[in-house]
Amino acid sequence: MERIAARAREDVRAARVHDPAARSGLEIVLAYPGVHAVWVHRVAHRWWRSPGLRLPARLLSQFARFLTGVEIHPGARIGRRLFIDHGMGVVIGETAVIGDDVMLYHAVTLGGKSTRREQRHPTLGDRVTVGAGATILGPVHIGSDSSVGAGAVVVKDAPAGAILVGIPARDLSQQASTGPGSLTDPAFYLDPGIYI
Questions:
Q1: Other Cβ atoms closer than 10 A to 82
Q2: What pLDDT is attached to residue 116?
Q3: Residues 169, 160, 12, CA angle at the centre, nearest 5°?
Q4: pLDDT tens-digit readout, 75-88
Q5: What's residue 76's pLDDT?
C-alpha cells in the first residue's frame, strides 16, 4: 500500500512539473483525467498479467476510457511518472511500451499496423514528449529525450534526441543548432514545406 501511495505522489509531482496550470496537488488528484487513467491502468495491467483476469482487466480499462476519454490497453507497459495532459482522445495499444518521465498531449495515438499477435505498437524511451494529435504507428522505437511534434505521423524508428515533425515525420534534430536554416532561425518557421 505504501508503494502505491508513493507512486501516486510521484504522478502528482510529475503533473505539477509538466503543467504550469496546476494549482495544487489536490486539484490534480480530483480533476486530471490523464492522471486518473494512469492510476486505473496500473490496476488493469496487474489484472491482465494474472491468470483468469484478462476480461475483468479489459472491462476496467473500458470503464476508465468512459470516465477519462483515455484508452490504455491493459497489456501496455508504462514506466513511472507518465503524464497525459488533457487526456481526451489518447489511445495506447496493447503492446506499447512507454519509458519513464514521458509526456503525452491530447489525441495522441500509439497504434499498431499489424493484425498478428506480435509486438505491433511503439516503444517510447525515457523523457519523450509527444505533441497533440501525433500518431506513432507500428513497432517503431523512439529514442529517449525525443520530441514528436503536434500532428506528426511517425512510422520509422528515431534515435535518442530526435525532433520529429511532419507527415510522414522526419527528424530535424540535425537542424536544431543555431544559424541559418536551424530551428532557432526565424526563417525556418516561414518555410511552408516544413509541415508537409
A1: 23
A2: 86
A3: 95
A4: 999 999 999 999 89
A5: 98
Residue 193, all three cell numbers: 514545406
How many structural domains compose the chain? Answer: 1
CB atoms within 10 A of CB 67: 12
Average pLDDT over residues 133-156: 97
Tell me, what amino acid is at 72? I
**Domain span at residue 156?**
2-195
CATH number of the domain enclosing 75: 2.160.10.10
Based on its alpha-carbon atoms, the radius of gyration of the chain, rounded to whole angstroms, reads: 17
Q: How far is CA 161 from CA 18, 33, 42, 113, 118, in A?
A: 19, 29, 28, 25, 27
* Phi, psi for residue 77 in degrees, rounded to 5: -105, 120
pLDDT for residue 184 is more than 80: no
Long-range own/partner contacts, residues 41-46 (CB < 8 A, 24 or more apart): 41/72, 41/74, 41/76, 41/78, 42/4, 42/7, 42/78, 44/72, 44/74, 45/74, 45/75, 45/76, 45/77, 45/78
Kindly give the pairing relationship between strand 91-92 and strand 109-111: parallel
Judge whether 112 and 137 are in contact, CB under 8 Å: yes
| Cα 169 to chain centroid, rounded | 16
Say how many CA atoms lie within 13 Å of 128 toward its Cβ. 30
